[in-house]
Amino acid sequence: MEAHPHRRFDPLYREWVLVSPQRMARPWQGAVEPVTLSPEYVWREDCPLCPRAMRANGEVNPDYQGPFVFPNDFPALLPAPAEVAPHPLFQAESVSGECRVICYAPEHNASLGSLGVRGVSAAVDVWSEQYSELIRRWEWVQIFENRGEMMGCSNPHPHGQIWAQDRVPSRPARLGESYLESPGLLSEIISAESGGERVVIETADWLVWVPFWAAWPFEVMVAPKRPAPSLAGLAHHEREELAAVLVELLRRYDRLFGAPFPYSFGWMNAPASFTGSWHLFGQYFPPLLRSATVRKHMVGYELLCEAQRDLTPESAAGRLRAG
To answer: Is 4 a catalytic residue?
Structure first.
């Protein structure tokens, strides 16, 4: 399979991906995007995420020293649902929720991976606390981060987002169906991957691997070996080990091409009313393909048919391990 096109199935989201490893030999003539370097300023008065700076709504941030969470000034979701007119063909439904921003640290020129185990451990604790609070009021809580201009991040200050809503979104809903039909599915996958060629980092409690069905070039999954429904369900030692694992992973990403590595990352915690056995995991979706300036775009066939990749997951995992 390493040299011939084939399809691989994702049993979690029930999707196929076309793998075309022979295309890695073709000359590259696509877009080359500039490298986004880390900002040089430790603090900026005009940055709405920095301590003591004024945000768009006129509020001034406190002089925070660790993670700082506040309501998003430009939320994608609002607490009050809107009226939606019914139509037999064009279906729509109301949705309500709230959005928050989490600044990982006060330093404008930092990144989550640069904070060290202590800083990342603080972020893990806040993720858990935010999930525990919001899941009592909302059905779904999505904790995520977009890093880098390439991923549409409008501010380089190290931060992530939390969107909570009253409906389970489409992909998590499909994941829930897989968990209900195949209890223990992710545990079986982790057991099969443990010690294998797609593993990037493995500890006593955590596994980081490039999934067999990965669509993005250096996509990885991060999951506890012991099934836990959410970050709030992790034991203290599992959280501490997770912080160390994330620091190592993020540093491997940055070393891969010798530049700050862009990505979208998020946690898949259990929905509020899920009745089955949910297994927490995180996912990283980085767009870089061949270098710090060559990006993998989802276009053409990917938009019309299904995801497609050239670099095999096995090769990607090997490069991350070597980094």
So the answer is: no
* Weakest mean pLDDT among 216-220, 275-279, 299-303: 299-303
Residue count (the chain):
323
Burial class (CB in 10 A: 0-12, 13-18, 19+), 145: buried
| Token code pair at residue 259 | 């530049």
Q: What is the pLDDT of residue 315?
A: 95
Query: Tokens 């060629």 label which residue?
Result: 197
What is the model's pLDDT at position 24?
Answer: 65
The interaxial angle of helices 236-256 and 116-134, nearest 10 deg, is: 120
Dist CA 323 CA 321 (whole Å): 6
Q: Which amino acid is at 79?
A: P
pLDDT at 293: 82
Report d(CA 165, CA 95) in Å as an integer.
7
Beta strands 97-103 and 159-165, pairing class: antiparallel
pLDDT at 296: 86
Residue type, 273: S
Q: Please name which of 83, 70, 177 lies closest in space to residue 130, comparing C-alpha atoms.
A: 70
- The CATH label, of 3.30.720.210, 3.30.70.270, 3.30.428.10, 3.40.50.2000, for the domain at 6-20+42-80+93-322 is 3.30.428.10
SS3 147: strand
Report the chain's C-alpha Rg in angstroms: 20
Question: Active-site residue among 6, 108, 157, 159?
Answer: 159
CA neighbor of 237 nearest in space, from 206, 273, 209, 200: 206
Placement of tokens 């096995």 in the chain: 314
